[in-house]
C-alpha cells in the first residue's frame, strides 16, 4: 500500500492539476472524431488539436460553433459536435469535447464520424448554412449514429 | 491564569458530558427511525446490505402510504421554509397527478436502467429513444429530473430529462434495481463497461411483491485525473480508492464525522413526518390505482409475448 | 464716567458668564438638501388619523372567546384560501350593482390584491418550458369608493378631463380583536371583517363598485396582460457587487483588501464631489417596484389562483402584491374584459374551474408530438 502510495505521489507529478475548464475557449484541447488523415494521426500521436479561435462574438464555443484549431502544425477549421459541459434538457452531453474537421466550404475532411452526434445539430447547422456561404449540412451526411 | 485554565477545563468536561448524552439519544434515534427522516436517502448509511434488503420497499402492495417517499420522492416539497405554501404544493401535486394519468411514469431508482422516448423536433422521425442507467435524481414537484448515462460507440453520453415534461412519450424501466449509492456520478470516471447498455435491451420482469433488488456491484475507477474528489465522498459502490498521501491527508481533514449527529441539519433537509404522511395520504389512492392499471398492462404484455415467439 | 461705565459692562459680561444660559445651535437637517427629496408622506384619506391612545379593555379570556364565536357566527370562519369557499360575503350588501355601462377602450377598472404563493414550471404547446408564478387572489372585497371629486378635489381648472375615482380594496380577513377600534370602523360601510391589507386602485367612475363586492381571480382572463406592484425582497445593507452587479476586483495579482469594492467614484478638478445617483453600497430591496406587462397563462377559479408568466415577480413567497390591468399601450386588451368586474350573480353561464391560455399545454392533455413537414 505504502509503495503504491509513493508511486501515486511520483506519478501524479506529471498530471496537471489546474481546474477543469467546462467551456471551449482558446487553447482548449479537443478530440477529432472523424477519419480524416491529419485528425487520426494527431489523435494517435497523443497530440490532440488545440482551439485557437472561435468564430462567434463571445469567444466561448457551444454546440455547432465553428472553431479554428492548431493540429500537427497546421491550421484547420472544425465544428464542435459534442461538448463535455452541461447542456439543456434532452440535449446529450458527452464525455469529451468532439470536433469534426472541415474545410472553408464546409465539406468535412473525413468520410465517417465514429461517435454519436446529437440530433439538435441538424437544426443548428441548417440554420448556420447560408445559400452563398459554407454548407455545413454535409457533416450530417457522414455521421453514422445520432442520439 | 491557572484558575482560568481550570475553569475552562471544567466547562469542557461538562460540555463533553452533555455531548455524550446527546449522542446517546441520537444513536438510539438513528437506530430506530433512520428511514423516517429523509427521503433522499433510500438506503440508510449505517447498516449492511442484508439489512437494506429487509427494509426495502415491497413492490406492488405498499401498505404504508409513507413508504411512497422512496418510490415517488418528487411528491415531497422543497423543505426550505421561505418557499413553502400549502396551496401551491397542493396544486402542484394535482398537476403532477394529471400528467401521471396520461403517461405511465414507472417506479425507478438511481441505478435502474430506463428507456425514454421523447418527441424531438430535430430528429427525422420526430421521436428519439435513449437508453441508459439513471445516475442522478433531483428536483421536487414538477421540477423533478433525472440523468441517464450510456456509452454509445465508445463515447460516454448523458442526457438530462425532466420527469413531467409533456414531450416525453414513454418511460420504460428496463431493469429495476438500486445501487449502493444515492448518486452514481462516479460512473463518469469508471471504465466504460460499467455504463454500457444495449439499446435493444428487453425489459426484465420482477415478480410482484418482491423487494427491489439492490445491486451491490463495486466499480474500480480509472486512474486520475478525476472529475471530482471521489475519495471524500464516502462511496459504497467503489472498490478501494487509492490517492496520494497529500490528497489522503486533505480528505481526512475535510471529513465531517459530526454531521450525522447534526439534528438540525437532518431537520432542515426534509419536511416533518406528519406533513409527509398528509401528502401521501392525499395522493396515495390515485398512485395506487395507477400502479394497479400498470400491472394489469404488464400482465397482458407478458401473456402476449410467448404467443409471438411461438 | 466712562471708567464707571466700563467697569459696569465688564461686571455685566462677567456675570453673564456665571449665569447658566441656553445656547441655540442649528443642527443640519438630514435629507433637507437632497436633490430628490424623500417623497412626502401623505396620510391616506380612507384611514382614520392615528390617535396614540392606548385602550385597556381588560377583557377576560372567556370574553375574548365569546367575541370570537360571535364574529364566526356572523362572518363565518376566516378564509385561509385552501379551497374552502369563503362565507365572508358582506351581510350588508349581497346584491352588487348592475353594470351600467359597456366597456369602452381607455376605461380603467379595478385591480386585485394577490398573494405570491410560489413558482413552478409549465409547458407551452410547442414544448418549451416556462416558469410561472402562482398568485392567489385572497379574500378580496371592495371597501369603499371615492369619487374623483372626493378623492382629488379640483384645485386648478386646467385638466378636468379623464378624472379618475379611487376604489379601496382589502385582502385577507382577520380577527377584529387584533385591530384598533378606529381601523375596524373603516369596514363599517362594506360590512366585512377587517382586512390585513388595503389597496387603492384608480378607476374610471363607470367602473365603480359597491362596497362589500367580492373580487375573484376570474376578474382577469387568461392571455391578459397585467402590471404587478410588490415590495421586493429585503436584502439589507449590501455591497456594490450584489446591489449593482459590479465586477469587483481581481482575487490576486497584488490586490489587497479591495476584492469586492466598487473602486473609484469620481474625479477631482472642477467636479470634486460625488455625482448624484452614483452606485454605491447601501440598503437593497424592500422597495415597491412595478413589473409591467406580465401575461396570464392560467386561472383556477376554485382556489382563485392566477398563473403569471415568469419567475421574477417582486416580493417573497407569501407576500401580498397589487395586480391590475396593464398600462402598456401595446398590451392593452382589445376585447372586452369583465367590466366592472367578474360578478357571478349576473353571469349567464358560470366560468369553468380551470381557464387556460391558448398556447399553454394542459397537464391532462396527451403528450406533445411534432408533425413531420411534408414537402
CATH hierarchy: architecture of chain A: Beta Barrel
| Most residues in contact: chain pair | A-B, 35 and 31 residues
Number of strands of chain A: 6
Overall radius of gyration of chain B: 23 Å
Main sheet characteristics of chain A: 5 strands, mixed
Could you name the CATH topology of chain A? Answer: Ribosomal Protein L14
Structural class of chain B: alpha+beta
Query: Strands of the largest sheet of chain B, in order across it?
Result: 4-3-2-1-5
At the first level of CATH, what is the class of chain B?
A: Mainly Beta
Taking the alpha carbons of the first and last residues of chain B, their distance comes to: 92 Å
- Low-confidence runs of at least 5 consecutive residues of chain B: 1-57
Roughly what is the average pLDDT of chain B, rounded to an integer? 81
Counting DSSP H or I runs of 4 or more residues, the number of helices of chain B is: 7
Strand neighbour order, sheet with most strands of chain A: 1-6-4-3-2
Q: What's the number of structural domains of chain A? A: 1
Compute the number of strand runs of chain B: 5
SS strand fraction of chain B: 5-15%
Uncertain parts of chain A: 9-13
Order of helices and strands of chain B: HHHHEEEEEHHH
Pfam family, one (chain C): Ribosomal_L3
GO molecular function (chain C): structural constituent of ribosome
Keywords (chain C): Ribonucleoprotein, Ribosomal protein
Region (Disordered) (chain C): 252-279
